[in-house]
Amino acid sequence: MHCTKKITDDLTWVGANDRRxxxxxxxxxxxxxxxYNSYLxxxxxxxxxxxxxxxxxxxxxxxxxxxxxxRALDYLVAQHMEPDHxxxxxxxxxxxxxxxxxCNAKTLAFIRQFYDADxxxxxxxxxxxxxxxxxxxxxxxxxxxxxxxxxxxxxxDSADKLLFSADAFGCFGALNGAIFADEVDFSKDYMDExxxxxxxxAGKYGAQVQSLLKKTAALEINMICPLHGFVWRKNIQDxxxxxLLWSGYAPEETxxxxxxxxxxxxxxxxxELLACRLRDRGAKTVMFDVSVIxxxxxxxxxxxxxxxxxxxxxxxxxxxxxxxxxxxxxxxHNIQNRTVAIIENGSWxxxxxxxxxxxxxxCRNITFLDGxxxxxxxxxxxxxxxxxxxxxxxxxxxxxx
Length: 401
Prior knowledge:
By secondary structure, the protein is α/β, with parallel strands linked by helices. It is about 35% helix and about 25% strand. It is built from 13 helices and 23 strands. It has a seven-stranded mixed β-sheet with strand order 1-2-7-8-9-10-11. Strands 17, 18, 19, 20, 21, 22 and 23 form a seven-stranded mixed β-sheet that branches. A five-stranded mixed β-sheet has the order 12-13-14-15-16, with no helix packed on it. A hairpin with a 2-residue loop joins strand 19 and strand 20 (about 320). Helix 7 packs antiparallel against helix 8 and helix 9 crosses helix 13 (about 385-395). The longest helix has 15 residues, at about 265-280. The mean pLDDT is about 95.
C-alpha cells in the first residue's frame, strides 16, 4: 500500500524509510533508520526528483504510481548518482518509455559506470544556470560538486521558491510519519543526527559546501527538500546557520570533548579526573570511549566542540587501534580550527602522544597545548598537578570563561 506525503499542492514526497539498515554506506551506524526522499512535481509536465535505494524500491514504485494518478512520467531529474538515490533509474526507464532523464555530463558518466543501458537518446544534459520549464514551474540547475560527490547538482524551483538540495541539509533517522522539520522538536531530537550526517558525509568538503551556500544565498528560499531527513519550511535559517559553522570548521560550543582509549582503566581514570577538574572550573565536557562509541559520533562531536583531548595508551609501539582509527578519520574529514591536548600512557614506552600530534599536526589551524601528560602504567599522586595544569590551560584558552 502506498504511503505518500503532500509537500505543496502539486509536490508530493514519494520516498520511503528504511529502519532495518544497520550501517549507512557500510560505515555509519543508523540505529534510528534513514529516509530516502524522492519528490514528484505534478505540473503540465511531471517531474521526479531522484529515486531511492534498492532496499525500498517496491514501496517507492507504489508511491510514485499513486502520486502520478495514471499520468506518465515526463522527466526524472538525477541530482546525485550515489546508488541510494539512483537505484530506480533503470526500472523507471522501462516503466515510462517516454521519460527523459535530466542530468549533467558527470552524472551521465556515472550512470554508464553503474548501469549497462543505452540511454543516450533519452538524456537531457544540463549545466550551471540552465532552466527547464514544466508549466507553472521553472527549474534552475545549480552545480554543487563534492557536496558530496563530484557530479552533485541542486535544483531551484523559482515558482514556489523551493530548493531540491540533494544530500545537503540532510539528516540520519527515519521520518516516523512526519515530513517537515517543524513537526518535530528538531533541535532536541534530530540536530545531533544532522551534525553527525554532515560531519561524516560532507565534512571533508567544507570549501565546496561554502561555495553552494554562497550560490543559494542569492535565492529566496521558502522550502528545502533534501534527499535524507526532513523538509524545511520554517526556521530555515536554523539549518543554514549550522551549515555555515560546520563548513567553516568553526565550533558550535565552547567546551571540551575528551576521547580516550584505555585497556585496563588507567588511561580512562586520567581522562575522568581531567573531566572532573574541567567541570570544577565551569567547563562543559563530553567523554567518549573510542572502543565502544562509533567513530562517526566522535567525529560529529569534534565538529561541535572547541577543544579536544585525546587520551590513549600506547599499543604495539603505536596509538591504540581504535584511537588511531579515530585520529585518521578526523584528519580525513578535514578537522581544523581546534585546540588540542594529549594524554599518553605506556608501561615501557610512551609513543602514542607524539604520533597523535604528528597526525593531527597535518590538519589546518590545530593549536596544541603545551604540557602533554605522559603516564607510565597508572597515574600517581605527584601527577595530579599535571591534570590541574592541563585543566587550567584548556579553560584558560576558552574565549568566554
